Amino acid sequence: MLGSLFTTSVAKTLISLEELRIYECDGLKHIVTPARVKINKKENMVEDEHEFESDLSMFSSLKRVTIWNCKSLKDIFGMAFVGGMMGPQVSLKLEELSLTDLPEMSHIWVTTNNSFTLQNLNSFIIHKSVKN
Questions:
Q1: Would 28 be classed as within a structural domain?
Q2: Is 81 exposed, middle or buried (0-12, 13-18, 19+ CB in 10 A)?
Q3: Which residues constitute the domain of residue 48?
Q4: In tens digits, what is the pLDDT along the chain, a chain of 132 residues?
Q5: Is residue 20 domain-resident?
């Protein structure tokens, strides 16, 4: 069972990623590992939520997100990927967000200290994605 797609350190390297499509991954709970402290065994490093929040480059080029039929997915961007050192307001490049058949989804973004705008968003679809 796949709990998440990326660790925070991997997600930080995805600065050129423009499209994310995820289909029929019933075991997937999170896109990025939401653990407050995670030991990176390969590099023997500790990642924590503060490190995660301080890097604005995470998903900075993301334009399209499509997630469909992931029965266990709880959040889309469960950790504060927006925040950090570039000022109080950040404009994201996200143009399309389509979420379908995600019955366990409780939120798309978490609250951050900084605000962000979605001025490029021209399509936002949520269908059959309500947690009971």
A1: yes
A2: buried
A3: 4-127
A4: 678 888 877 887 888 999 999 999 999 988 887 544 344 444 444 444 444 443 445 777 889 999 999 999 988 876 555 444 444 566 678 999 999 999 998 888 765 665 667 889 999 999 987 676
A5: yes
